[in-house]
Amino acid sequence: MVQCEMCGAETSSPKTIKVEGAELDVCDNCSDFGTEVKTQDDAGSTSTKYSTSSSSSGSSSSSSSTSSSSSQSRRSDMFDDMDELAQDYDDRIRNAREGTGMSQEDLADELNEKASLIRKLERGDVLPSDEVQRKLERELDIQLTAGGSGDDEDWSGGSSTGEYTLGDVVKRKD
């Protein structure tokens, strides 16, 4: 007999359920607290099916093997399409503001934001929201995303075989 991973009761036929992302082997009484995991018996299948029906599922070893093989191909998410904020966004904001001759208070008035926000952004204490980032880029005519410099695209190092060595990448400080 197996012990229920939720309540500790002894059960002869545990069910595998998913509760907030964790797969648990539970008794019949606790199976209502999650979504029952159904696994396909095909060896070539890489997906795990979830259902709220009360049919029995495979053993926990077969469900763990299918979930590990499905991690090989990562599903794209919303972060893949997002631009990454540049590391030196604070310097870019400060230099652009000083280049226009504006004070922090003047820039805050133009953006309809608080001057304390501009101070925190220029110190690098806070990250700009998407809306504030768009306002800053429009007002100061700057690019705050990491792809703004384009240094990687201009680089043409490497050997004729197409392989790069450490010497192609490192810049010496002599």
TrEMBL record:
Residues 30-109, 145-174 are annotated as: Disordered. Pfam families: HTH_3, HVO_2718_N. Residues 45-73 have a biased composition (Low complexity). SMART domains: HTH_XRE (SM00530). GO terms for molecular function: DNA binding. Keywords: DNA-binding. Residues 79-88 have a biased composition (Acidic residues). InterPro entries: Cro/C1-type_HTH, Lambda_DNA-bd_dom_sf, MJ0586, MJ0586_N. The keyword Metal-binding does not apply. Residues 93-149 form the HTH cro/C1-type domain. This is Multiprotein bridging factor aMBF1. It comes from Halorussus limi.
